[in-house]
């Protein structure tokens, strides 16, 4: 097939075609990466604005700016009885395309300022559920006393941690599970008191080490006695920012030469992709844990039977072409759904079921374009609309790019599929000037900031590498002191992009095992400098 977005040839496997048919759709002439890119453009995690609530006039924090073309309500106003989503209901017009009518509905229905459900003392979090005492956590659920994280789950006292699961007292880490009191660790599991390490399992008291299993007192993959380790540890981790910066740069050097397994897939059966844990029968999936029978999904958590989705989690089942759902059953072609079932082409729907083309519903059922119907009338009209959408060529497609409320450079798309302004605009995406945070892998920190003592660093409110203001808050200052961590000199977004730069792309390359020459599909591009092994050869190396 020829991708209508990139005008390049791509192939669908028999399994891909079967997956489309299983959900009742014809295969789309759009490659999966471009489908992911378009969906992710509808998600804004990190960019927050101060504006007025259009219901109460109070000052609120919102993912939508003050000039958004639709009403924006605080969560309190949105969930109150004063907001009735059915007030905006309308009839379906069979003389017009569905997306055109949906766009008009979208401009009239109030949008919730932040997606921050059932949280306590966590007002500055977005795309989150059930956090407590958290600040600037994005997409992470059920965390406590944590700050500056993207997709942490069930973590406590963690700072600058992304995609970490049930970790505690960790700092500047990613893709780690059940770790404790560790800093600068990546792809680690069941570890504690480790620093600047990657791909460790069951280890403790390790520094600048890789691919260790059940080891203690290692530095640069070399064993030491406990006494020798403690003596050297005070030299390596002296609490100064300059030392930490040098260790980070040295860690990156060692990391570029390390031996790696072709994919970070652990405790899985019949899975392909990368960063997949405790899963079964998941093909071409990236960044997920506890999933089963999923295909072509990005960032999934405890999902089952899902196809071609992004950010699907916490028990979602039978999702298709879906973005940002939690505990959803049969949510198709929708965005941001929480505890919903049997919904099609919906946005921001909560605790609802049997909906079609609805926006901002809460505890509603049998509605189309936010208008209430009986069960019988709903089912009959739904079938007619589907037939109409098949004629217009809309059925099975995600919402058009024009319906995204976010510019490309403020959406999740730009993290995973970075584009320059000209590229984004030519592809039909929106863009906002000035660029707020460039996706750069390098941030130069001037000496006048490096050398400032920690005692007064909280007086400095400008990140020199990105020229953005930021503050050191009392809880984080207490955390840094208790963990012997120097106070950061960079804005939280600059720190996020440093961690993001360590992530491999959502793309598989054909490679050979460096030891046995077996064929591999890996996210390590051919020009990468790491040594790539198949699983068998890798296990022979690390054990």
Structure description:
The chain is α/β, with parallel strands linked by helices and 543 residues long. Among the domains are: 264-319, no CATH class; 509-542, no CATH class. It is 23% helix and 25% strand. The strands form nine sheets. The chain has a nine-stranded mixed β-sheet. Strands 17, 18, 19, 20, 21, 22, 23, 25 and 27 form a nine-stranded parallel β-sheet that branches. β31 (462-463) and β32 (468-469) form a beta hairpin. The longest helix has 18 residues, at 375-392.
Q: Tell me the number of strands.
A: 35
Q: N-to-C terminal Cα separation, in Å? A: 44 Å
SS-derived structural category = alpha/beta
Number of helices: 14
Which regions contain 5 or more consecutive residues with pLDDT less than 50? 435-446
Q: Overall pLDDT, averaged?
A: 92
Fraction of residues in H or I helices: 10-25%
Radius of gyration: 24 Å
Main beta-sheet annotation: 9 strands, mixed
Biggest sheet, strands in spatial order? 7-8-9-10-11-12-13-14-15
Shape: globular
Strand content: 15-25%
């Amino acid at each position: 097939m020829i991708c209508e977005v990139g005008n390049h040839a791509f192939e669908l496997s028999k399994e891909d075609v079967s997956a489309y048919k299983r959900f009742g759709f014809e295969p789309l002439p759009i490659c999966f990466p471009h489908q992911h890119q378009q969906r992710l453009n509808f998600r804004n995690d990190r960019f927050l604005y101060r504006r007025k609530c259009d219901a109460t006039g109070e000052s609120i924090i919102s993912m939508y700016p003050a000039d958004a073309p639709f009403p924006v309500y605080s969560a309190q106003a949105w969930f109150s009885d004063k907001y009735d989503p059915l007030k905006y209901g309308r009839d379906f017009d069979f003389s017009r395309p569905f997306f055109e009518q949906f766009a008009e509905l979208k401009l009239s229905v109030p949008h919730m300022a932040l997606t921050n459900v059932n949280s306590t003392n966590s007002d500055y979090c977005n795309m989150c559920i059930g956090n407590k005492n958290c600040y600037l956590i994005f997409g992470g659920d059920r965390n406590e006393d944590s700050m500056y994280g993207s997709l942490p789950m069930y973590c406590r006292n963690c700072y600058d941690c992304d995609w970490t699961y049930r970790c505690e007292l960790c700092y500047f880490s990613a893709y780690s599970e059940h770790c404790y009191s560790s800093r600068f660790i990546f792809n680690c599991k069941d570890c504690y008191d480790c620093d600047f390490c990657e791909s460790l399992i069951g280890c403790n008291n390790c520094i600048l080490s890789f691919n260790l299993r059940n080891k203690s007192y290692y530095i640069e993959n070399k064993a030491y006695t406990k006494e020798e380790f403690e003596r050297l540890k005070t030299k390596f981790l002296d609490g100064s920012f300059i030392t930490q910066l040098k260790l980070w740069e040295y860690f990156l050097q060692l990391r570029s030469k390390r031996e790696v397994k072709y994919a970070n897939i652990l405790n899985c059966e019949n899975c392909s992709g990368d960063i997949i844990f405790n899963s079964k029968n998941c093909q071409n999936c990236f960044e997920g844990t506890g999933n089963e029978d999923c295909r072509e999904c990005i960032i999934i958590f405890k999902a089952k039977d899902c196809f071609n989705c992004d950010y699907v989690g916490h028990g979602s089942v039978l999702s298709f072409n879906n973005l940002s759902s939690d505990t959803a059953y049969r949510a198709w072609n929708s965005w941001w759904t929480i505890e919903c079932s049997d919904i099609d082409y919906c946005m921001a729907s909560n605790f609802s079921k049997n909906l079609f083309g609805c926006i901002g519903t809460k505890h509603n059922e049998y509605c189309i374009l936010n208008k209430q119907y009986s069960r019988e009338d709903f089912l009959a009209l739904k079938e007619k609309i589907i037939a109409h959408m098949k004629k217009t060529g809309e059925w099975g497609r995600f919402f058009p790019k024009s319906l995204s409320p976010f510019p490309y450079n403020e959406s999740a798309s730009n993290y995973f599929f970075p584009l320059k302004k000209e590229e984004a605009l030519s592809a039909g995406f929106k863009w906002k000037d000035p660029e707020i945070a460039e996706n750069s892998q390098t941030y130069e920190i001037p000496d006048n900031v490096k050398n400032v003592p920690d005692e007064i660093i909280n007086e400095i409110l400008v990140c020199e590498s990105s020229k953005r203001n930021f503050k050191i808050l009392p809880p984080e200052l207490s955390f840094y002191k208790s963990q012997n961590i120097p106070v950061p000199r960079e804005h939280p977004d600059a720190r996020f992009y440093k961690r993001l730069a360590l992530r491999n792309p959502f793309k598989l390359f054909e490679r050979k095992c460096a030891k046995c020459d077996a064929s591999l599909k890996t996210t390590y591009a051919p020009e990468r400098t790491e040594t790539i092994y198949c699983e068998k050869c890798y296990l022979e190396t690390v054990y």
